[in-house]
Amino acid sequence: MGLEKRHLPVMVPEVLDALKVQPGGRYIDATAGEGGHSQAILRASEPGGQVLAIDADEEAVAVAKERLTEFGDSFLTVNANFRDLRITALRHDFAPVHGVLFDLGVSSLQLDREARGFSFRRADPLDMRFSIDQRVTAADVVNSYSQGELADLIYHLGEERAARRIATAIVRSRPIETSLELANIIEKASPRRGARIHPATRTFQAIRIAVNDELSALETALQQAASLIGYGGRMVVISYHSLEDRIVKNFFRKESSDCVCPPGTPICICDHKATLKMVTKKPVTPSEAEIGSNARSRSAKLRSAERI
Ligand SMILES: C[S@@+](CC[C@H](N)C(=O)[O-])C[C@H]1O[C@@H](n2cnc3c(N)ncnc32)[C@H](O)[C@@H]1O
Fold it and tell me: N or C end: fewer C-beta atoms under 10 angstroms in the chain?
């Protein structure tokens, strides 16, 4: 692979700082991708640091493994979905850890791979699965959901105001075979608003989230991650759209407060104790310089919390 195609890890110094990476520390990279963050964590945790790198995408795991051979046994890769984070870590005797990182979404490698159908800029088959073991593909969603189901999905998971119009256009144009065909249909159905982003961006996001059941995987995984981190350890999440960020923010909020019975409640079962302390009240975002050199970083929001 040429260097120009390599995925550029986002906010690396901010991630290392938020994870409080220390020599000899053990970290889980729950979204290994091409291993950019893993590599930075391994370097910063020398001597003796270890990373368990997980990715649902078999190809990504293979790339990360090959790229980081220099770290030997300190770098362990596993092809798994992070919805199984806890069992994966326990199986590899990798708990408790000093930190867990999630860098959500897709990598440049996935966007560049023609067979994957994540990009709306080429005529690729409509796939969008992170793992080939998953049953549902983007083609299934696009060609078999009812018009109402599609409109709801595009509205809720893409936060797309033109969802109904787009859903109608999709249903009228079936069968749709390629990502470019789909993008053109969406573009024609979208109102011209001089948008900053391509008119298909939100609909592609919605379909990808649905295909990979991303939001429920994230909710489950955050809970599991908290249970794997030792006291004083950190959880760091980089999200790229508001649906993900809301889940992270609400999870950190809930886990960082004790349950208090509302005054005057006659019977209240309230035994939840805070497990996390929020480190970032507001999300950390990339510098102007980083956005200038890596456009993909522009929507990144980093939140972190400490296990207490
Ligand atoms: C933005 S990329 C990560 C890039 C990586 N931090 C790097 O520096 O190269 C996101 C990765 O998360 C993976 N991913 C997304 N959802 C996942 C899930 N539920 N379980 C495991 N991996 C997932 C994707 O396959 C993708 O490789």
Answer: N
CATH class of 8-103+214-307: alpha beta
Give residue 2's pLDDT band: very low, low, confident or very high (50, 70, 90): very low
Going from the C-alpha of 92 to that of each of 8, 42, 54, the distances in angstroms are 28, 18, 12
| Mean local confidence (pLDDT), 85-94 | 98
**Per-residue pLDDT reduced to its tens digit, 117-142:** 898 888 999 999 999 999 999 999 99
How far apart CA 182 and CA 203 sit, in angstroms, is: 10
7 CB under 6 A from ligand 1?
Answer: yes
Q: Rounded to whole angstroms, how far apart are CA atoms 181 and 173? A: 9
256 C-alpha to ligand 1 centroid (Å) = 26
The 3 state secondary structure assigned to 47-69 is CCCEEEEEECCHHHHHHHHHHCH
- The pLDDT value recorded for residue 267 is 83
Q: Determine the Cα–Cα distance for residues 257 and 243; give it in Å rounded to an integer.
A: 22
CATH topology of domain 118-212: DNA polymerase; domain 1 (1.10.150)
Q: Measured from the CB, is residue 113 less than 6 Å from ligand 1?
A: no
Pocket test for ligand 1, best of 15, 75, 85, 107 (most atoms within 8 A of CB): 107
Cut 0.85: pTM above it: yes
